[in-house]
Amino acid sequence: xxxxxxxxxxxxxxxxxxxxxxxxxxxxxxxxxxxxxxxxxxxxxxxxxxxxxxxxxxxxxxxxxxxxxxxxxxxxxxxxxxxxxxxxxxxxxxxxxxxxxxxx
Length: 104
What we know:
The protein is 84% helix and 0% strand. The protein has helices spanning 2-23, 29-49, 55-78, 84-103. The radius of gyration is 14 Å and the shape is flat.
């Protein structure tokens, strides 16, 4: 169950990172509320996951899911550059997440 909490927490981290763009500096109420809900929920799920998963592994996986997912959505939603090197680096983050899961 801890890995499910961690995965969902990582997805919510993507949600708040992307949500920040839509808040326009916290001037738009609905995106701001959604972003804050994602932030709090993400950290709460990370905390629950850390009951069973080592702190270093849990945090690295949570942050990796957030970083890779946000980078991919930045490409898809906002036209961020999708260079080969950038995509390779995202792949390395994903490989690190998988590796940590396999050894945890």
